[in-house]
Specification:
45% of the residues lie in helices and 14% in strands. It is an alpha/beta fold and 515 residues long. Strand 8 and strand 9 form a beta hairpin. The chain is globular.
């Protein structure tokens, strides 16, 4: 495996013109950003009394209404732990919940097969991840169609060379040309072959979880995998107040394997929760806290992440909406509750219901990302190209979202007095009415510049073809795929062959019609 995915640049004579300057910047080495460390405060919506009231309400929901765990073994696990069991309805004393969640680590390392790409989750640390689960794509030619396995691998390559994407997703796309029961095999294999960043596995069923974990053990070895997080998976509850059999069996497998579980109810504000920001948040907290407590019965100390992925609802049709103020407030409060319990948390990022890369796609996305950034999120998913309410990925938006992530990364660094005196030395030299463009300190500390956004004069923009953000985003993707092809990550041949043999065997064993 290469030590780093950096492409050496050829020495060029500096020439004038915006195009030449842009070319020089975009051919520089790819600098992969490490885990972001928050140096700005979190935004607090509730005071301590408010947090305690949400906690009391959530615990009251679990004690009185209860929550359904629709899986026989999970029911027995709760019965043995001391919960009140009435069929599938589980009522859990708050003292038991508090005891169980104390064993959840507040931080953990998320390992990549290239140690330089490993990241940290929890505390002041934040990582960005890509979209997942979309069955359609608007490709680099601007054609909307069903996604294929090749599209999935193309996205994985882009995530590998995107400096601000810290891990590679699981189902970056639903490969519609692969039978549903076999998709997880191609997803995990492709993740390991196309990237050396941390990856996600599947938690959609027990056999998919088992296969994902088995493939992780092939790459990392059984002992290392048992002691360290090398894979995450998302587990969605059914709001209100249901955890179903498929998710619970998969969750148990991941907990037993000591891998990180991103546990999130599927929330449609106003449809699966009350139309009340704090009542809805209390319900979601109850659903999540019951599930993460369950993981600690299975294996104390296993890594669990509180998740919230709230969406609004278009009341005329029931379709999900994004960028709503109610959802943003829920995210802020949920983040406070995660810190209240001392558990890492994740949420969704740049999603939109828009059908193309238009103004509202940007509005929706920014109004999802900012509450995550300011609310102290530790792991942000859906940071790459999602449109149509998660039914499609726009390749152009993959590019624009990626550049925006780098600006958020800079924002998280906060403001520092470091080198302030050095920077001010230039002021005496420049004097009144001068400029700082030619100062060494300026060249060494250039402010963030989004190369996809066109900041040239109108006449220059017209002369270059009047390209809009969609065209420029596709150009960025093509350019970065060229960069990837110059020096792709490699995987030990013996491991790659073992993965291929595993996938081939499991495809033969799993009927293509199995659910």
């Amino acid at each position: 495996m290469p030590e780093d995915l950096e492409v050496p640049t050829k020495q060029r004579r500096r020439s004038g013109g915006a195009a030449a300057r842009r070319q020089a910047r975009t051919r520089g080495p790819i600098v992969h950003l490490p885990t972001a460390v928050r140096n700005i405060p979190t935004y607090e919506v509730l005071d301590q009394e408010g947090l305690e009231r949400i906690d009391d309400t959530a615990m009251g929901i679990l004690e009185t209404i209860g929550i359904e765990f629709r899986e026989d073994r999970a029911i027995e696990i709760w019965r043995e732990a001391g919960a009140d069991v009435d069929g599938q309805r589980i009522r859990i004393p708050r003292e038991l919940i508090r005891k169980l969640i104390k064993t959840i680590p507040q931080e953990f390392d998320y390992h990549a097969r290239n140690p330089k790409r490993s990241v940290k989750v929890g505390g002041r640390h934040m990582i960005f991840g890509p979209a997942y689960g979309t069955p359609n794509v608007i490709d680099l030619d601007g054609v909307r169609r069903q996604a294929t396995a090749d599209d999935m691998r193309t996205l994985m390559k882009l995530h590998q060379v995107n400096p601000a994407i810290h891990y590679n997703g699981g189902y970056t796309q639903e490969p519609m040309d692969v039978a549903v029961p076999h998709r997880h095999l191609h997803m995990v294999e492709s993740s390991f072959l196309t990237t050396d960043k941390p990856i996600m596995g599947s938690g959609q069923s027990a056999y998919q979880a088992e296969d994902s974990l088995a493939m992780a053990r092939i790459v990392f070895g059984e002992d290392f995998t048992d002691r360290n997080v090398v894979m995450t998976a998302i587990f969605n509850g059914n709001s209100p107040l249901v955890w179903d059999e498929t998710q619970l069996t998969s969750m148990r497998l991941y907990a037993e394997a000591n891998q990180a579980m991103l546990i999130s109810p599927f929330v449609l504000y106003g449809a699966s929760t009350p139309v009340h920001i704090l009542a809805g948040t209390a319900q979601i907290v109850a659903e999540v806290i019951a599930a993460i407590a369950f993981t600690q019965i299975v294996r104390p100390g296993s890594r669990a992440v509180m998740g919230v992925a709230p969406m609004g609802v278009y009341m005329k049709s029931g379709s999900p909406t994004f960028g709503s103020p109610e959802v943003a407030l829920m995210m802020y409060v949920f983040g406070q509750m995660a810190r209240y319990y001392g558990v890492p948390w994740r949420t969704n990022g740049a999603k939109t219901g828009s059908k193309k890369d238009d103004l509202y796609a940007g509005y929706d996305s920014i109004l999802k990302v900012y509450p995550a950034i300011l609310g102290g999120c530790n792991l942000l998913t859906h940071c790459g190209g999602t449109i149509e309410g998660s039914l499609c990925i726009s390749m152009a938006k993959v590019a624009t979202d990626g550049r925006q992530l780098q600006s958020f990364y800079t924002m998280l660094e906060g403001a520092s007095f470091d080198n302030m005196d050095v920077a001010l030395e230039g002021l005496a030299k420049v004097g009144p009415g001068g400029h700082f463009f030619n100062e060494d300190y300026t060249r060494e500390h250039l402010p963030f510049l989004d190369e996809i956004q066109d900041n040239e004069r109108y006449e220059t923009w017209r002369a270059a073809g009047s390209k809009d953000v969609t065209q420029r985003g596709r150009e960025w993707c093509r350019h970065m795929l060229e960069r990837y092809a110059e020096d792709p990550p490699t995987l030990d041949q013996a491991i790659a062959e073992e993965l291929r043999a595993f996938v081939t065997r499991r495809e033969a064993e799993i009927p293509s019609s199995v659910s």
